[in-house]
Protein backbone atom coordinates (compact mmCIF):
# COMPACT_ATOMS: atom_id res chain seq x y z
CA UNK A 1 0.00 0.00 0.00
CA UNK A 2 2.80 2.44 0.83
CA UNK A 3 4.12 2.17 -2.72
CA UNK A 4 0.73 3.14 -4.15
CA UNK A 5 0.62 6.13 -1.80
CA UNK A 6 4.10 7.18 -2.89
CA UNK A 7 3.03 6.89 -6.53
CA UNK A 8 0.13 9.34 -6.16
CA UNK A 9 2.40 11.73 -4.17
CA UNK A 10 0.00 13.15 -1.57
CA UNK A 11 2.73 15.52 -0.35
CA UNK A 12 2.39 17.31 -3.70
CA UNK A 13 -1.29 18.06 -3.03
CA UNK A 14 -0.18 21.22 -1.25
CA UNK A 15 0.10 22.73 -4.75
CA UNK A 16 -3.68 22.50 -5.09
CA UNK A 17 -4.18 25.01 -2.29
CA UNK A 18 -4.08 27.56 -5.12
CA UNK A 19 -7.81 26.84 -5.65
CA UNK A 20 -8.38 28.74 -2.39
CA UNK A 21 -6.71 31.81 -3.89
CA UNK A 22 -9.98 33.40 -5.08
CA UNK A 23 -11.54 32.90 -1.63
CA UNK A 24 -8.56 34.50 0.12
CA UNK A 25 -8.06 37.41 -2.26
CA UNK A 26 -11.79 37.84 -2.69
CA UNK A 27 -12.31 38.31 1.06
CA UNK A 28 -14.70 35.34 1.28
CA UNK A 29 -12.98 33.21 3.92
CA UNK A 30 -16.07 33.47 6.14
CA UNK A 31 -18.41 32.46 3.32
CA UNK A 32 -19.45 28.83 3.99
CA UNK A 33 -20.56 28.11 0.42
CA UNK A 34 -17.40 29.54 -1.13
CA UNK A 35 -15.14 27.64 1.27
CA UNK A 36 -17.05 24.38 0.76
CA UNK A 37 -16.92 24.72 -3.03
CA UNK A 38 -13.20 25.51 -2.90
CA UNK A 39 -12.62 22.50 -0.63
CA UNK A 40 -14.29 20.10 -3.05
CA UNK A 41 -12.45 21.69 -5.99
CA UNK A 42 -9.23 21.15 -4.07
CA UNK A 43 -9.92 17.40 -4.12
CA UNK A 44 -10.86 17.52 -7.79
CA UNK A 45 -7.33 18.67 -8.55
CA UNK A 46 -5.65 16.45 -5.96
CA UNK A 47 -6.99 13.32 -7.65
CA UNK A 48 -6.47 14.73 -11.16
CA UNK A 49 -2.85 15.62 -10.34
CA UNK A 50 -2.24 12.18 -8.85
CA UNK A 51 -3.44 10.55 -12.07
CA UNK A 52 -0.86 12.64 -13.94
CA UNK A 53 1.88 11.63 -11.49
CA UNK A 54 1.08 8.01 -12.27
CA UNK A 55 1.27 8.64 -16.01
CA UNK A 56 4.48 10.65 -15.66
CA UNK A 57 6.20 7.84 -13.77
CA UNK A 58 4.97 5.29 -16.32
CA UNK A 59 6.46 7.27 -19.19
CA UNK A 60 9.68 8.17 -17.34
CA UNK A 61 10.59 4.65 -16.20
CA UNK A 62 13.74 4.36 -18.38
CA UNK A 63 15.04 7.80 -17.34
CA UNK A 64 14.11 7.31 -13.68
CA UNK A 65 16.08 4.08 -13.46
CA UNK A 66 19.24 5.97 -14.47
CA UNK A 67 18.58 8.84 -12.03
CA UNK A 68 20.39 8.66 -8.65
CA UNK A 69 17.27 9.72 -6.71
CA UNK A 70 14.29 8.91 -8.93
CA UNK A 71 15.40 5.30 -9.32
CA UNK A 72 13.66 4.62 -5.99
CA UNK A 73 10.24 5.63 -7.33
CA UNK A 74 7.65 2.83 -7.10
CA UNK A 75 7.53 1.94 -10.80
CA UNK A 76 11.22 2.47 -11.52
CA UNK A 77 12.17 0.27 -8.56
CA UNK A 78 9.71 -2.45 -9.57
CA UNK A 79 7.54 -2.11 -6.45
CA UNK A 80 4.52 -1.25 -8.62
CA UNK A 81 3.90 -2.82 -12.04
CA UNK A 82 2.87 -0.84 -15.11
CA UNK A 83 -0.54 -2.52 -15.07
CA UNK A 84 -1.11 -1.51 -11.46
CA UNK A 85 0.04 2.02 -12.22
CA UNK A 86 -2.44 2.37 -15.09
CA UNK A 87 -5.24 1.05 -12.87
CA UNK A 88 -4.36 3.54 -10.14
CA UNK A 89 -4.26 6.36 -12.69
CA UNK A 90 -7.80 5.52 -13.87
CA UNK A 91 -9.01 5.30 -10.26
CA UNK A 92 -7.66 8.78 -9.54
CA UNK A 93 -9.40 10.16 -12.64
CA UNK A 94 -12.67 8.55 -11.54
CA UNK A 95 -12.39 10.05 -8.05
CA UNK A 96 -11.70 13.47 -9.56
CA UNK A 97 -14.84 13.19 -11.70
CA UNK A 98 -16.86 12.15 -8.64
CA UNK A 99 -15.73 15.27 -6.81
CA UNK A 100 -16.87 17.43 -9.72
CA UNK A 101 -20.30 15.79 -9.55
CA UNK A 102 -20.34 16.34 -5.77
CA UNK A 103 -20.35 20.09 -6.34
CA UNK A 104 -23.98 20.02 -7.58
CA UNK A 105 -25.65 18.93 -4.31
CA UNK A 106 -23.38 21.34 -2.43
CA UNK A 107 -24.81 24.31 -4.34
CA UNK A 108 -28.29 22.91 -3.70
CA UNK A 109 -27.65 22.90 0.05
CA UNK A 110 -27.07 26.64 -0.09
CA UNK A 111 -30.15 27.29 -2.21
CA UNK A 112 -28.35 28.13 -5.44
CA UNK A 113 -30.22 28.21 -8.73
CA UNK A 114 -30.16 24.72 -10.36
CA UNK A 115 -29.07 26.19 -13.69
CA UNK A 116 -26.22 28.18 -12.18
CA UNK A 117 -25.21 25.14 -10.11
CA UNK A 118 -25.00 23.01 -13.24
CA UNK A 119 -23.05 25.73 -15.01
CA UNK A 120 -20.54 25.94 -12.16
CA UNK A 121 -20.06 22.15 -12.10
CA UNK A 122 -19.56 21.99 -15.86
CA UNK A 123 -17.12 24.91 -15.74
CA UNK A 124 -15.00 23.32 -13.00
CA UNK A 125 -15.15 19.98 -14.80
CA UNK A 126 -14.07 21.58 -18.07
CA UNK A 127 -11.07 23.28 -16.44
CA UNK A 128 -10.07 20.04 -14.68
CA UNK A 129 -10.41 18.12 -17.95
CA UNK A 130 -8.28 20.69 -19.76
CA UNK A 131 -5.72 20.45 -16.93
CA UNK A 132 -5.53 16.67 -17.38
CA UNK A 133 -5.31 16.91 -21.18
CA UNK A 134 -2.62 19.58 -21.00
CA UNK A 135 -0.56 17.54 -18.57
CA UNK A 136 -0.87 14.41 -20.68
CA UNK A 137 0.64 16.29 -23.62
CA UNK A 138 3.26 17.65 -21.22
CA UNK A 139 4.23 14.17 -20.02
CA UNK A 140 4.22 12.64 -23.49
CA UNK A 141 6.03 15.35 -25.45
CA UNK A 142 6.05 18.98 -24.36
CA UNK A 143 8.28 18.57 -21.31
CA UNK A 144 11.13 17.86 -23.71
CA UNK A 145 11.17 21.51 -24.81
CA UNK A 146 13.02 24.02 -22.65
CA UNK A 147 11.07 27.10 -21.49
CA UNK A 148 7.82 25.56 -22.74
CA UNK A 149 8.09 22.98 -19.97
CA UNK A 150 8.26 25.52 -17.14
CA UNK A 151 5.58 27.71 -18.71
CA UNK A 152 3.16 24.78 -18.85
CA UNK A 153 3.86 23.91 -15.22
CA UNK A 154 3.12 27.51 -14.24
CA UNK A 155 -0.03 27.57 -16.37
CA UNK A 156 -1.26 24.50 -14.49
CA UNK A 157 -1.38 26.62 -11.34
CA UNK A 158 -3.34 29.31 -13.18
CA UNK A 159 -5.88 26.63 -14.09
CA UNK A 160 -6.19 25.71 -10.41
CA UNK A 161 -6.82 29.36 -9.61
CA UNK A 162 -9.40 29.64 -12.40
CA UNK A 163 -11.20 26.54 -11.18
CA UNK A 164 -11.37 28.00 -7.68
CA UNK A 165 -12.86 31.19 -9.08
CA UNK A 166 -15.45 29.33 -11.16
CA UNK A 167 -16.41 27.06 -8.27
CA UNK A 168 -16.94 29.97 -5.89
CA UNK A 169 -18.29 32.51 -8.35
CA UNK A 170 -15.47 34.94 -7.55
CA UNK A 171 -14.07 37.10 -10.35
CA UNK A 172 -10.29 36.98 -10.41
CA UNK A 173 -8.16 40.11 -10.54
CA UNK A 174 -5.85 40.22 -13.56
CA UNK A 175 -2.97 40.95 -11.20
CA UNK A 176 -3.62 37.76 -9.21
CA UNK A 177 -3.66 35.67 -12.38
CA UNK A 178 -0.39 37.20 -13.57
CA UNK A 179 1.20 36.90 -10.13
CA UNK A 180 0.25 33.22 -9.89
CA UNK A 181 1.79 32.47 -13.27
CA UNK A 182 4.97 34.41 -12.53
CA UNK A 183 5.43 33.05 -9.00
CA UNK A 184 5.13 29.43 -10.11
CA UNK A 185 7.31 30.15 -13.15
CA UNK A 186 9.93 31.51 -10.76
CA UNK A 187 9.77 28.33 -8.65
CA UNK A 188 9.91 26.15 -11.77
CA UNK A 189 13.10 27.86 -12.95
CA UNK A 190 14.56 27.41 -9.48
CA UNK A 191 13.75 23.71 -9.70
CA UNK A 192 15.44 23.46 -13.12
CA UNK A 193 18.52 25.08 -11.56
CA UNK A 194 18.93 22.01 -9.39
CA UNK A 195 18.85 19.84 -12.53
CA UNK A 196 21.54 21.97 -14.20
CA UNK A 197 23.79 21.70 -11.14
CA UNK A 198 23.38 17.91 -11.12
CA UNK A 199 24.13 17.76 -14.86
CA UNK A 200 27.31 19.80 -14.45
CA UNK A 201 28.43 17.60 -11.56
CA UNK A 202 27.71 14.22 -13.16
CA UNK A 203 27.74 14.96 -16.88
CA UNK A 204 24.34 13.24 -17.15
CA UNK A 205 21.26 15.47 -17.76
CA UNK A 206 18.39 14.50 -15.39
CA UNK A 207 15.93 15.56 -18.11
CA UNK A 208 16.31 15.54 -21.86
CA UNK A 209 15.83 19.29 -22.07
CA UNK A 210 18.31 20.12 -19.29
CA UNK A 211 21.05 20.48 -21.91
CA UNK A 212 19.20 23.57 -23.17
CA UNK A 213 19.64 25.33 -19.82
CA UNK A 214 22.73 26.65 -18.07
CA UNK A 215 23.33 28.47 -14.79
CA UNK A 216 23.71 31.89 -16.40
CA UNK A 217 20.33 31.67 -18.10
CA UNK A 218 18.60 30.10 -15.09
CA UNK A 219 19.95 32.75 -12.70
CA UNK A 220 18.77 35.56 -14.94
CA UNK A 221 15.36 33.93 -15.42
CA UNK A 222 14.95 33.54 -11.66
CA UNK A 223 15.87 37.18 -11.07
CA UNK A 224 13.50 38.49 -13.75
CA UNK A 225 10.50 36.40 -12.70
CA UNK A 226 11.02 37.22 -9.01
CA UNK A 227 11.17 40.95 -9.75
CA UNK A 228 8.09 40.96 -11.97
CA UNK A 229 6.19 38.83 -9.45
CA UNK A 230 6.84 41.41 -6.75
CA UNK A 231 5.77 44.24 -9.06
CA UNK A 232 2.54 42.41 -9.91
CA UNK A 233 1.76 41.90 -6.24
CA UNK A 234 2.37 45.56 -5.44
CA UNK A 235 0.19 46.61 -8.38
CA UNK A 236 -2.54 44.34 -7.04
CA UNK A 237 -2.41 45.82 -3.54
CA UNK A 238 -2.58 49.43 -4.76
CA UNK A 239 -5.08 48.91 -7.58
CA UNK A 240 -8.25 51.04 -7.19
CA UNK A 241 -10.52 47.99 -7.54
CA UNK A 242 -8.86 46.23 -4.60
CA UNK A 243 -8.88 49.34 -2.41
CA UNK A 244 -12.58 49.81 -3.20
CA UNK A 245 -13.33 46.12 -2.59
CA UNK A 246 -11.80 46.00 0.88
CA UNK A 247 -12.17 49.66 1.81
CA UNK A 248 -8.56 49.69 2.96
CA UNK A 249 -5.43 51.25 1.48
CA UNK A 250 -2.94 49.40 3.70
CA UNK A 251 -2.75 46.09 1.85
CA UNK A 252 0.50 47.24 0.23
CA UNK A 253 2.20 46.69 3.60
CA UNK A 254 2.06 42.92 3.00
CA UNK A 255 4.47 43.40 0.07
CA UNK A 256 7.42 43.26 2.48
CA UNK A 257 6.61 39.63 3.28
CA UNK A 258 6.43 38.76 -0.42
CA UNK A 259 9.83 40.37 -0.98
CA UNK A 260 11.43 38.54 1.95
CA UNK A 261 9.87 35.25 0.84
CA UNK A 262 11.25 35.63 -2.69
CA UNK A 263 14.70 36.53 -1.38
CA UNK A 264 14.73 33.50 0.90
CA UNK A 265 13.74 31.21 -1.96
CA UNK A 266 16.51 32.66 -4.14
CA UNK A 267 18.93 32.05 -1.28
CA UNK A 268 17.80 28.41 -1.10
CA UNK A 269 18.27 28.03 -4.87
CA UNK A 270 21.52 29.92 -5.40
CA UNK A 271 23.40 29.65 -2.09
CA UNK A 272 22.14 26.43 -0.53
CA UNK A 273 21.37 24.74 -3.89
CA UNK A 274 18.31 22.94 -2.52
CA UNK A 275 15.51 24.14 -4.80
CA UNK A 276 14.99 20.84 -6.63
CA UNK A 277 11.80 20.08 -4.74
CA UNK A 278 9.60 23.18 -4.15
CA UNK A 279 7.10 21.20 -2.09
CA UNK A 280 9.86 20.00 0.24
CA UNK A 281 11.11 23.57 0.61
CA UNK A 282 7.67 24.77 1.68
CA UNK A 283 7.10 21.84 4.04
CA UNK A 284 10.57 21.85 5.63
CA UNK A 285 12.01 25.35 5.56
CA UNK A 286 10.99 27.18 8.74
CA UNK A 287 11.97 30.59 7.36
CA UNK A 288 9.65 30.20 4.35
CA UNK A 289 6.84 28.90 6.58
CA UNK A 290 7.23 31.84 8.96
CA UNK A 291 7.14 34.38 6.12
CA UNK A 292 4.06 32.78 4.52
CA UNK A 293 2.29 32.64 7.89
CA UNK A 294 3.18 36.28 8.62
CA UNK A 295 1.93 37.35 5.19
CA UNK A 296 -1.33 35.45 5.65
CA UNK A 297 -1.99 36.85 9.13
CA UNK A 298 -1.21 40.40 8.01
CA UNK A 299 -3.41 40.02 4.93
CA UNK A 300 -6.35 38.70 6.97
CA UNK A 301 -6.00 41.35 9.68
CA UNK A 302 -5.97 44.17 7.12
CA UNK A 303 -9.02 42.79 5.30
CA UNK A 304 -11.20 41.72 8.22
CA UNK A 305 -10.04 43.75 11.23
CA UNK A 306 -8.52 47.12 10.37
UniProtKB/TrEMBL annotation:
The keyword Transferase applies. Keywords: Cell membrane, Membrane, Transferase, Transmembrane, Transmembrane helix. GO terms for cellular component: membrane. It is found in: Membrane. It comes from the Bacteria. Gene3D superfamilies: UbiA prenyltransferase. It is a multi-pass membrane protein. NCBIfam families: PRK12324.1-4. This is 4-hydroxybenzoate polyprenyltransferase. The chain crosses the membrane at residues 12-30, 36-56, 85-110, 116-134, 146-166, 172-190, 211-238, 250-266, 287-305. One of its GO terms (molecular function) is transferase activity, transferring alkyl or aryl (other than methyl) groups. CDD domains: PT_UbiA_2 (cd13963). Pfam families: UbiA.
Amino acid sequence: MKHYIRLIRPTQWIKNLFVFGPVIFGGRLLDAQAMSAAFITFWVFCFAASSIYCLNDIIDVPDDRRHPVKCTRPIASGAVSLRQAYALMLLMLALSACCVVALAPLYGMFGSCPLSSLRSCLSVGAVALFYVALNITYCVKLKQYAIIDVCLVAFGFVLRLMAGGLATGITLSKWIVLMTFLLTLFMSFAKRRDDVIRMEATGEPPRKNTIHYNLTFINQAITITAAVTLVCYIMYTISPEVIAQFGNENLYLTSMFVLVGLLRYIQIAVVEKKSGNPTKVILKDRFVQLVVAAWFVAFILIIYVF
